[in-house]
């Protein structure tokens, strides 16, 4: 139930699980992990994947899973859900969990990183998945004009029930809560599981001094609802 959510957020029901089941799981009753456990698992999983990616790179693996920064500061807050204005706007820099801007060479193809909008009034942190692939790999529903240098950015908040999309399966972004799957090479369109719509893509470009910045807000609503 929405009132049970520790952050006061509401989660609409999904196609496979009802609202009560989703929210009870996030609230941490006997049937599922608490929201804090879930965020810790998310962060821990990213750290583990970072190590795994390094190992893959060492052995010449083709599907490195990325140098992922753990958004520890955001574990208890996804973003200001009460805030209804733009999350990003033209010129807002993308930053990592430490607040460092993202230089053009930060990621290699196949890697990903959780980033956030540089702080500005009305919004503190909105987890965003930054991925990088070879430019020619993108297709399908990708908004090519929203990408730059092989980078594409999507909201990390699952459109099903608001979990963090923290896992990877090759080029597929995977939500651990109900196995929602999104194609990173095709605009994060849904390719499996209950999410009702794609993760909204963020238009990005490189600033004159070589850092990733947004050129506007997400192309659609962040998180559940709004579809
Ligand atoms: S929250 Fe259900 S698949 Fe992501």
From TrEMBL:
<dbReference type="Pfam" id="PF00355">
    <property type="entry name" value="Rieske"/>
</dbReference>
<dbReference type="InterPro" id="IPR014349">
    <property type="entry name" value="Rieske_Fe-S_prot"/>
</dbReference>
<keyword id="KW-0001">2Fe-2S</keyword>
<dbReference type="GO" id="GO:0051537">
    <property type="term" value="F:2 iron, 2 sulfur cluster binding"/>
</dbReference>
<protein>
    <submittedName>
        <fullName>Rieske (2Fe-2S) protein</fullName>
    </submittedName>
</protein>
<keyword id="KW-0479">Metal-binding</keyword>
<dbReference type="InterPro" id="IPR036922">
    <property type="entry name" value="Rieske_2Fe-2S_sf"/>
</dbReference>
<keyword id="KW-1015">Disulfide bond</keyword>
<feature type="compositionally biased region" description="Basic and acidic residues">
    <location>
        <begin position="1"/>
        <end position="29"/>
    </location>
</feature>
<feature type="region of interest" description="Disordered">
    <location>
        <begin position="1"/>
        <end position="31"/>
    </location>
</feature>
<dbReference type="GO" id="GO:0046872">
    <property type="term" value="F:metal ion binding"/>
</dbReference>
<dbReference type="GO" id="GO:0016020">
    <property type="term" value="C:membrane"/>
</dbReference>
<keyword id="KW-0411">Iron-sulfur</keyword>
<dbReference type="InterPro" id="IPR017941">
    <property type="entry name" value="Rieske_2Fe-2S"/>
</dbReference>
<dbReference type="InterPro" id="IPR005805">
    <property type="entry name" value="Rieske_Fe-S_prot_C"/>
</dbReference>
<feature type="domain" description="Rieske">
    <location>
        <begin position="125"/>
        <end position="213"/>
    </location>
</feature>
<keyword id="KW-0408">Iron</keyword>
């Amino acid at each position: 139930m929405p009132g049970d959510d520790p952050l006061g957020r509401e989660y609409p029901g999904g196609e496979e699980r009802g609202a009560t089941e989703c929210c009870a799981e996030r609230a941490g009753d006997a049937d599922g992990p608490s929201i804090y456990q879930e965020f810790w698992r998310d962060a821990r999983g990213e750290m583990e994947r970072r190590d795994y990616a390094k190992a893959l790179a060492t052995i010449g693996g083709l599907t490195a899973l990325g140098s992922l920064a753990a958004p520890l500061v955001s574990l208890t807050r996804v973003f200001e859900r009460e805030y209804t204005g733009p999350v990003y706007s033209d010129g807002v820099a993308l930053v990592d969990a430490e607040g460092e801007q993202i230089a053009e060479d930060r990621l290699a193809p196949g890697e990903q990183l959780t980033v956030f909008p540089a702080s500005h009034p009305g919004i503190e942190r909105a987890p965003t998945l930054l991925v990088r692939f070879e430019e020619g790999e993108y297709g399908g529903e990708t908004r090519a004009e929203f990408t730059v240098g092989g980078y594409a950015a999507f909201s990390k908040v699952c459109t099903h029930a608001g979990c963090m999309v923290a896992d990877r399966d090759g080029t597929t972004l995977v939500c651990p809560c109900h196995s929602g799957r999104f194609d990173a090479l095709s605009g994060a369109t849904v390719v499996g599981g209950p999410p009702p719509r794609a993760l909204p893509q963020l238009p990005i470009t490189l600033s004159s001094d070589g850092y990733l910045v947004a050129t506007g807000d997400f192309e659609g609503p962040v998180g559940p609802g709004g579809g």
